[in-house]
Amino acid sequence: MARRRGRFLVLGLDCATPQLILDSPAGDDLKHIRSLMGRGCYGRLTSSIPAITCPAWMCMATSKDPGTLGLYGFRNRKDYSYTGLGIGTSLSVKEPTVWDLLGLRGLKSLVMAVPMTFPPKRLNGWLCSGFLAPDTNADFCYPKSFRDELLAAAPNYQVDVRDFRTDDKQSLLQQIYDMTAEHFRAFRHMMKTKDWDFMQVVEMGPDRLYHAFWRYCSPDHRLYEPDGVFSSVIADYHRFLDGEIGSLLELTSDEDAILVCSDHGAKTMVGGIAVNEWLIQRGYLALKPDAPREAGTKVSPEIIDFARTRAWGDGGYYGRIMLNVEGREPEGLIPPEEYESFRDRIKGELEALGDDQGRPIGTRVFKPEEIYRQVNNIPPDLITYFGDLDWRSAGTLTGGRLHIFENDTGPDDANHAQEGLFVLAGPGSEGRGEVRGATLYDVAPTVLRHFGLPVPKDMIGEPLL
What we know:
By secondary structure, this protein is an alpha/beta fold. It folds into 2 domains: 8-269 and 416-450, 3-Layer(aba) Sandwich (Alkaline Phosphatase, subunit A); 271-411, no CATH class. The protein has helices at 18-21, 31-39, 53-62, 66-69, 98-104, 145-153, 169-193, 205-217, 233-249, 275-281, 339-352, 368-371, 443-450; strands at 8-13, 41-46, 75-77, 85-87, 109-114, 125-129, 141-142, 198-203, 257-261, 265-268, 271-274, 311-314, 319-323, 364-366, 382-385, 391-394, 403-404, 414-417, 419-425, 433-434. The strands form 5 sheets. Strands 7-6-5-8-1-9-19-2-20 form a 9-stranded mixed beta sheet, sandwiched between helices. The longest helix is centred in the middle third of the chain and has 25 residues, at 169-193. It is globular, with a radius of gyration of 22 Å. The two termini are 22 Å apart.
C-alpha cells in the first residue's frame, strides 16, 4: 500500500494554449488559474510528436512516446496492406497508465472524459470514457453502474459536440457551453461522492472553440475582423471555464495537489499543403486512369494506382507519408536497398517546399526511429509538420493547387501547436514560479512522486517537483 497523503487532481483542458492563458493580459481575468500560478509553478508543457489528442493524452498517462505505444494518430496502419487502417482505442494502449500503477498500490482513481479510454478498462475506481466514445448510450463507464449514476447527476451529459466544423457558429457555441457546464456538473458530483486518491478529468471545449472561432479572435489570422460579433468568444469562454475550475478547487484542501494542463496548444492555421497533389506533381503518386480528379476528392486506396506509386500521403493537422516498398507492401516499387535514400530524398524535398510565394516556411520532417525510444506497430515512414504546424496537411485533391487557404475537411482556422501549458499547485510547489523544459511525459512521474511511489525506469519523464 502507498502511504496515504493529500489527493492529486489533474484538470485537463484539451488544446489550451499558453499564449492566451499564461501570457495574455486577458489571462488576468482568470482569477482561479492565476491563483494557482501564484501558489505554485507553471509553464509550457511540450507535447508528443505528433501533437494531437490521440495519442498525446495517453503519452501523458503512461509517460511513453507514440512509438512505444505504437499509436501515431487517430488512425493507424494495422498491416502493410493499403486498406488496413484502425482507430486507436483504449485496447491499443498496452503500457500501464498512471491510474493502473496507483491501483496496484491500493489507491483509488476517478477518471472522467480522458480521450482514448473507450472502451472502458477495469481499474481500482471509476471511469467514464472520453472523446472517441460514440455517445452516452454506449457502455462507456466502469463499472457499468457508474453510467447510471453519471447520467442521474448530469442528465444532459454528452461526450463531445456533434460537429465542430460547421458554419452554424452560434449553435456550436451554445453546444460548447452546454457540454462544458454539464461535464463540470458531473465532475463536481463525483468529486464529492467518491472516495478517490487520484482524479483526472479532460474538457474538450477549448479545442472545439479554438478550431471554430480562432479567426475571429486572433489578429494574425488573415480573416481576422476586429470588433466582430465573435471577437470576444475565446476570452469569454476562458472566463467561464475558469469559473468552472474554481468550483472544483472549492472541493480540494491545502494538502491536495492540483495540476491544470493541456495536451498541446493552438496557433493560427495559415493554410494547407496538398500533400497528395505535391506527390502527384513530383511523379511519386499515380491515380488510376478512371479516378475522379475534381477538387475535394479523397485520395483513398481505391483510386491509387499502386503499381505506379512510390509514395502516398494523408491529411490532418500534421502529414503522414507512406512509402510503397518492394516486399513490404503488396505492389511495392521501392527496392529495400533504396528505401533510406528515397526517404531522405522525400524528406529533403518536403523541407524545401515554400509557401505560395516560394518563401521558406520551416517544414520539419521526422523519421520515427529518430524521435522515439521504440517503434512499435506500423508507423508512417515520415511524419511531417508543414511550416512547423503553421500549415495543415490537406490529403484531398485540390484541382492541382499545392497551397490552399481553406480547410479541406470543413471550417477550421487553428492548427495544433507543440507547446501546451501546465499550472501546478500543492505541497512542494509553493512559490516556484515559471518552470522551463517541462513535457507531458513529466505528468505521470509527478503523480507517482506525490504519493511516494517509485517512478518506473522506462518512463520518459521526470517529476516536476
